[in-house]
Every structure is written in C-alpha cells, then in structure tokens.
Amino acid sequence: MTEREQRATTNNGKALPTALLLGLGMTVLFAAAVKDRSSRILLGLGIVLLCAAAILAFQMPGVRHASSGETLQGPALAASTAPPPVTTPVAADPAPITRIVIPAIDVDAPVTAKGLDSQGVMEAPDDPVHVAWYRFSSRPGAGGNAVFAGHVDFASAGPAVFWDLENLNSGDVIEIRLEDGIDYRYRVTTKETFDEASAPLDRIVGPTPGDAVTLITCAGNFNRATQRYDQRLVVQGERIANENSASATGPPDDQASQNQH
Hints:
Elements: H1 3-34, H2 39-58, E1 97-102, E2 107-114, E3 131-134, E4 145-149, E5 153-154, E6 158-159, E7 173-178, E8 183-195, H3 201-205, E9 212-223, E10 228-239, H4 253-258
Parallel strand pairs: 2-3, 4-9
Antiparallel strand pairs: 1-2, 1-7, 3-4, 5-6, 7-8, 8-10, 9-10
Helix pairs in contact: 1-2
C-alpha cells in the first residue's frame, strides 16, 4: 500500500470515532443546558468530548491545516522557481474553458482560470473539485502548451480531483471542453514525477512546438511544517489530430495555425 493510500485509509478509520465523539459531546452539552441537576458535571464532560474529537480530527494524516492568515499550498510550483508569463498565440476560439474530462480515471471537473500571485507563485485551485488552467500558458487549440493543475487531496475532503492522476497510462485520452461546445482531445504521452525544488520548469510549463496539454498535481511526502508536498506529478499529452467528428474536436491544427497572431 502506498503512503497516499495509507493516509486515505487512516482518515476513513478515524472519521467514525471523530463523529461519535462529536455526537456524544453535543448530546451531553444539550443535557446540561436543559437539566439543572449535575449540569456542571455534564457540561465539563461535553467539553472534554468535543476537545478530544477536535484533536483526533486535527491529527488525521494527509489532511492539511492552516492557522489564521496561513495559505495552504496546492500543486503550484514554488515561488523561487515559478515560471514567468509565457506569450502564446491566441486561439481562434476564445470561448471560456469549462471542463476537463479524463475517462480513464473518471474525472469530469469544472475548470477555472488562474495566474501567478504577487510572489510569482502559480495560484492553486480553489477547492478539491475545480481544476485550474493557467493564463500564462497556451489556450487549447492555439498551438502551444495548455497547463492545468488540480489537488491530489484536500483538507477535510480527503482525495481530490487528481487523486488518480498517477494511474494514467500512455494513450489515455484527456478532453478539454469549451463553453461553446468545442472539445479538444489529447493523448497521454509522458508521466513523470519531479522533486519540487528541482523541477525542470521549461520542460513542464514552457512552450511546445505543437498543441499539448500538461496536468500537474502533488506527489511524494507531505511536510506538516511547510504544509507542502515535496514532489510534483506531471502528465503531458499531445493533441489528437485528424479526427472526423467536428463536434468532438476543435479546429484542425493547420486551421489553428492560420489563425495565430
């Protein structure tokens, strides 16, 4: 069993006792409120149970916690190595990117546009469900590298949208859907894991000679002190060319190149 699977199993095992402690605590507190007799004893017992439940929940492996004012880092790359904005051609179709679909791992998720924060760090997706597309990267169909990122797990939620990204294989299909109904389809070509501190950024998020897609998520070990994973899983794919169904694909590659400026 991998470390990530152990975290998920441990979380599931602790969820029931945590819920029971919370339920008992609330019941005792309610009893203390409606009965005068022994109310102080009941109140004290209720507080102890609630505190125990909180401690148990906080210690769940693989769940990230932040104090006030602290920002949890997602699959984004570190500030010291974050990429500068990349100028890419504008796609002929400017419709918003709405969803990413990966049938092999049952992903069908909404997409939100993100960029770089004030420290030059790639902004993390907002929640365990959404996938981020980065505005410094290419738009799908524009002849470059369209970069996406999603969480592998998330505080209080457990496994997140890219939990099974590591299970993708060469040839699996990635679909990027636009608001106007156009789909861009890619086939997985590579899957690699990099140490966050030494990840080859040009190779991951830099320009590509043709239509490509890059998916990034966290991997490796989670450091509770830094609230970060120490590795990044990167899946890359190339656009599937010469498909017959216009409803399932965007403009052909040659048409997209004619519309670049």
